[in-house]
Amino acid sequence: MSFLRYKTHIEEGELVIAYLMPSHNGRGFMYLLHPTPELWTHVVPHRTQILYAADISYITTYLDLKPGSVVLESGTGSGSFSHSLARTIAPNGHLYTFEFHEERAKAVKQDFEEHGLSDLITIECRDVCKNGFGVTDLVHAVFLDLPAPWEAIPAAKEAFKQKRIGKISCFSPCIEQVQRTCASLNENGFVEIKMYECLMREHEIKTIPIYTVTDAVNKIKLQQDKKRKRKEDRDEQDNANADSQVSKSKQDPPNLYVSKTPNEVKGHTSYLTFATFLPVLEEQFLTK
């Protein structure tokens, strides 16, 4: 089954993602899931560290990617982000991705072929920091996941379409990398240089009753009545039945939706540095 088009029926020889749910009796269930970039991120063989949903969604949005976009990626790694990029720019966009390690490049190329993404993705084994990207005036956006992204920024500048605005993003675990990257972006004429950090925080949604002041006063009176009845040596079972009848006769208070966040949040993944490439001005405007 294709990562790009949904199908309702599975045919022989097609790729699916199997989710196993074992049970205590040794049987359990198996669910056959349609492959998506999100599911692939969870099951991809980790040849390198990968990007996850929080960073992927933020980068894709900030780079303004859409169907038809031409994107340049360096640091293919395990191909997690490449799958999401391919789905975003389909059906008539293209991704040029580069990987320094030859064995990783071969492995991820095989993944692209098996997943039906070869028409959208061109992968090449290349050291872009030393040899550049080999393309000029071509792409709308650039993503760099490299140990030294500042070394590839001059080549990335040449790869942008020279007559339109482009966006670049750099994925760096250390703040020292961010500092050098920002300096290189500034030296090469990029503007709107910004850095972000994405942390995923889950919200647990639940309902709670809303009590008024009158409800609180009545609750206190009810507790006092219970104490008084116990002092009068009334039967405890009769008290419980009476209390139950009183509570049932009252109207339930309205509910309010609230959210609760965990005390601890998943830790730092990486810093995301963004910048904007401005188009080259025509000579006639420069002379004026």
From TrEMBL:
<dbReference type="GO" id="GO:0160107">
    <property type="term" value="F:tRNA (adenine(58)-N1)-methyltransferase activity"/>
</dbReference>
<feature type="binding site">
    <location>
        <position position="145"/>
    </location>
    <ligand>
        <name>S-adenosyl-L-methionine</name>
    </ligand>
</feature>
<dbReference type="GO" id="GO:0005634">
    <property type="term" value="C:nucleus"/>
</dbReference>
<keyword id="KW-0819">tRNA processing</keyword>
<keyword id="KW-0808">Transferase</keyword>
<dbReference type="Pfam" id="PF08704">
    <property type="entry name" value="GCD14"/>
</dbReference>
<comment type="similarity">
    <text>Belongs to the class I-like SAM-binding methyltransferase superfamily. TRM61 family.</text>
</comment>
<dbReference type="InterPro" id="IPR029063">
    <property type="entry name" value="SAM-dependent_MTases_sf"/>
</dbReference>
<dbReference type="InterPro" id="IPR014816">
    <property type="entry name" value="tRNA_MeTrfase_Gcd14"/>
</dbReference>
<keyword id="KW-0539">Nucleus</keyword>
<feature type="region of interest" description="Disordered">
    <location>
        <begin position="222"/>
        <end position="262"/>
    </location>
</feature>
<protein>
    <recommendedName>
        <fullName>tRNA (adenine(58)-N(1))-methyltransferase catalytic subunit TRM61</fullName>
        <ecNumber>2.1.1.220</ecNumber>
    </recommendedName>
</protein>
<keyword id="KW-0949">S-adenosyl-L-methionine</keyword>
<feature type="domain" description="tRNA (adenine(58)-N(1))-methyltransferase catalytic subunit TRM61 C-terminal">
    <location>
        <begin position="28"/>
        <end position="276"/>
    </location>
</feature>
<dbReference type="GO" id="GO:0031515">
    <property type="term" value="C:tRNA (m1A) methyltransferase complex"/>
</dbReference>
<comment type="function">
    <text>Catalytic subunit of tRNA (adenine-N(1)-)-methyltransferase, which catalyzes the formation of N(1)-methyladenine at position 58 (m1A58) in initiator methionyl-tRNA.</text>
</comment>
<feature type="binding site">
    <location>
        <position position="99"/>
    </location>
    <ligand>
        <name>S-adenosyl-L-methionine</name>
    </ligand>
</feature>
<dbReference type="GO" id="GO:0030488">
    <property type="term" value="P:tRNA methylation"/>
</dbReference>
<keyword id="KW-0489">Methyltransferase</keyword>
<dbReference type="InterPro" id="IPR049470">
    <property type="entry name" value="TRM61_C"/>
</dbReference>
<feature type="compositionally biased region" description="Polar residues">
    <location>
        <begin position="239"/>
        <end position="248"/>
    </location>
</feature>
